[in-house]
Amino acid sequence: MLRIYAEYEDHVNYYIIMEYIRGGNLYENMIESKFLSEKHVANYIKQLLLVCNFLHLQGIVHRDVKLENIMVKRQSNDVSEISLVLIDFGFATECK
Q1: Which CATH superfamily is domain 23-94 in?
Q2: What global pTM score does this model have?
Q3: In 3D, which of 94, 86, 77, 95 has the Cα closest to residue 25?
Q4: Complete DSSP assignment for 12-65
Q5: Cβ–Cβ contacts within 10 Å for residue 39, how many?
Q6: Is 84 exposed, middle or buried (0-12, 13-18, 19+ CB in 10 A)?
Q7: How do the pLDDT tens digits run along the chain, 96 residues long?
Q8: Which positions are catalytic?
Q9: How confident is the model at residue 33, as a pLDDT?
C-alpha cells in the first residue's frame, strides 16, 4: 500500500507528500526484463485481482488499470519478492 505522509493546501494548489517507490512502473520493468516467467506473471495477476477485489468490496472502481499505473515495489533484487502498488485514482468512481 502506498503511504501518504502529509497533505497541504494553499489558495491555488493541493500538496500530497507520498512514499517514493524506487522500482518504477510495471511497463518499464517489463520492457527492461524482456522475459517474465509464468510463475511471476501469475503472482502479479493475483496481486492485481486481490487489489481490485478489495476496492470493489469498498465500492470503488479504479477505471484506469494499466501497466503505467502499477508501481513495482522491490524488497530485494529477487523478482519473486516484488509487490505491486496500484496508483492514480483520478478516474476512480464510488459505486453504491
Answers
A1: Transferase(Phosphotransferase) domain 1 (1.10.510.10)
A2: 0.81
A3: 86
A4: S-EEEEE---TT-BHHHHHHHH----HHHHHHHHHHHHHHHHHHHHTTEE----
A5: 9
A6: buried
A7: 678 899 999 999 999 998 888 889 999 988 988 888 899 899 999 999 999 999 999 999 999 999 999 999 887 766 668 899 999 888 999 998
A8: 64
A9: 85
